[in-house]
Amino acid sequence: MNSILTLEERISALVALGMRISSLGSEEKESLARRSHHQNNWFTQDSIFLALDGIAFLLEENNLRKWVSAYTLPELKEPKNVGIIMAGNIPGVGFHDLVSVLISGHKASIKLSSADSFFSTWLIQELTDFEPRLKPFISLEEMLKGKDAYIATGSDNSARYFNYYFGKYPNIIRSNRTSVGILTGSESDQDLEDLGFDIFSYFGLGCRNVSKLFVKNEEILHRLLGILEKYKYVADNHKYLNNYEYNKSIYLVNRVDHLDNGFLLLRESKELVSPIGVLYYEYYEDAPQLIQELESQKNKIQVMVGKRSECPAFIPFGTAQKPAPWDYADKVDTLKFLSSLV
Length: 342
Known about the structure:
- The chain has helices spanning 7-22, 26-39, 45-58, 61-68, 95-104, 117-130, 156-166, 189-200, 218-227, 238-253, 287-295, 334-339, and strands at residues 81-85, 107-111, 138-140, 149-153, 171-174, 178-182, 210-215, 259-260, 265-268, 278-283, 301-305.
- By secondary structure, the protein is of the alpha/beta class.
- It folds into 2 domains: 7-176, Aldehyde Dehydrogenase, Chain A, domain 1 (3-Layer(aba) Sandwich); 178-305, 3-Layer(aba) Sandwich (Aldehyde Dehydrogenase, Chain A, domain 2).
- The strands form 2 sheets. Strands 8-9-10-7-6-11 form a 6-stranded mixed sheet, with helices on both faces. Strands 3-2-1-4-5 form a 5-stranded parallel sheet, sandwiched between helices.
- Strand 4 (149-153), helix 7 and strand 5 (171-174) form a beta-alpha-beta unit.
- The longest helix has 16 residues, at 7-22.
- It is globular and about 60 Å long.
- The two termini are 24 Å apart.
């Protein structure tokens, strides 16, 4: 059997996986969620279901075809071996890198995060069950030595490590990023409720989660805290609650001004990345000037959430954790990088 798949066959395999995920029964999804949660207590049923929905959206045929139509992807007789070091902050966070490598026709050697080995392994197993000819193109490894190229995602500290070891190879190395929200005061209640999804999905652990707000005045912060009551269930997770209570105690002991609705702390800060259970905010006066300032920090910002009418660079409230295939992490075109490896 010929193990080299055409682009059309690779797309078909990925579409089949997406359809399989979309058709999962409730018992099967709940079992997957339980087993994933057993490995990582941050991976709740809601988080696993959200990740499954996101991956199914990623693998919709229309999305995949629109994505690849922007590239020239030659059929490779000698695929390169691409090492992928996956993060584990949210379920299946490294799956887009795997899809990109497979779509490009290369082979993927994957180092899974210990925090997300079960869920990601399940995805890979489902994919290769549908298309066994992909098995030689995917390997799980503990040490990624001697690969032709690398895609590595981690913290700022691990990025320095990755640069040291992989800098001489073609690479994409990602470090810490976060996302911000910009509020004008004209937002509807629905806008602010949708913003809550951007804040609390995956407990705020993703780089696409909003961890900092820019606001016109304090009034909107009080309004926001009331509307966010819908998300108080996050405090049912002991890991989230421990983070919230720890930061609250620090603020109280040190007499740090903050707002509190019982499960989220709002604190004024110039920093972008807030701790879990905390949302930073900063006041601004002029929107064009703010956008200019944020542009100067674009290497630390994944997405900006706000009203598109204010700035075309904003994405709508509630969509931060719903990326399409072409919404690349760190805005680095992964498929362009991979298609250059010939």
